[in-house]
Every structure is written in C-alpha cells, then in structure tokens.
Design brief:
It is built from no helices and eleven strands. By secondary structure, the protein is an all-beta fold. Strands 2, 4, 5, 6, 9, 10 and 11 form a seven-stranded mixed β-sheet that branches. A four-stranded antiparallel β-sheet has the order 1-3-8-7, with no helix packed on it. A hairpin with a 5-residue loop joins β5 and β6.
Length: 117
C-alpha cells in the first residue's frame, strides 16, 4: 500500500508564504502524477496543482501565479510553494498520487492551512 505523508501546514498571515511537502512510500514515485488538492470548510475538494511524471503542470485558476508545484524524484517528495496567501486559501490540503493507466489513486491524511491575521 502506498502511503503519503504531508507536512508544512500551519497558521500564516495574509500575504505570507508556506511550503507544503508530501513524502510518498513507493519505489516507482517517478511514474506517478502528483497533485495537491484542498477542501475549504463546507466546500468540495478542489484541485490546487498537479505535476505529471513528465513534468507537465496544471494549476487551479485561483492559485495561478501564486502557487508552484515541484517534485524531487530522488526523495520521493512533492512540494507546494504557496506565496501571497489569502484568507480564502484556508483549507485542508491533501496530497494525491495517481497512475490512471493502472487505476491507482492514493491520498494523504491532509494538513491544515489557515490564513488569518
């Protein structure tokens, strides 16, 4: 079973920055499309950013230009750099690993990000 462990969440003031990290327990990390999703209070989970195995990235409209996803295949880790944070970025952030070719889809336990003064 693949396990994902997120870290880096916390409380930050508007305009501040945070970097989330997600470590994945698999020998084939490089084959996975990695993504970050978030679920604000009372709302549905939404895509924040994803990075395919080949490096192609995709961002949600609300975070374009502020957030950046990256991965280190040698460390089995995906990162989410979040800059210019806004109160509406407050949510539980989840890491996702998927390989659609073999119907594999795994989630982390989530990490809370709160943007407030």
């Amino acid at each position: 079973q693949v396990q994902l462990v997120e870290s880096g969440g916390g409380l930050v003031q508007p305009g501040g920055s945070l970097r989330l990290a997600c470590v994945v327990s698999t020998r084939i990390f490089s084959l996975y499309t990695m993504g970050w999703y978030r679920q604000p209070p009372g709302k549905q989970r939404e895509l924040v950013a994803s990075m395919a195995s080949g490096g192609t990235t995709l961002y949600g409209d609300s975070v374009k230009g502020r957030f950046s996803i990256s991965r280190d295949n040698a460390k089995n880790t995906v990162y989410l750099q979040m800059n210019s944070l806004k109160p509406e970025d407050t949510a539980v952030y989840y890491c996702n690993a998927r390989r659609t070719s073999v119907d594999s889809n795994f989630w982390g336990q989530g990490t809370q990000v709160t943007v407030s003064s």
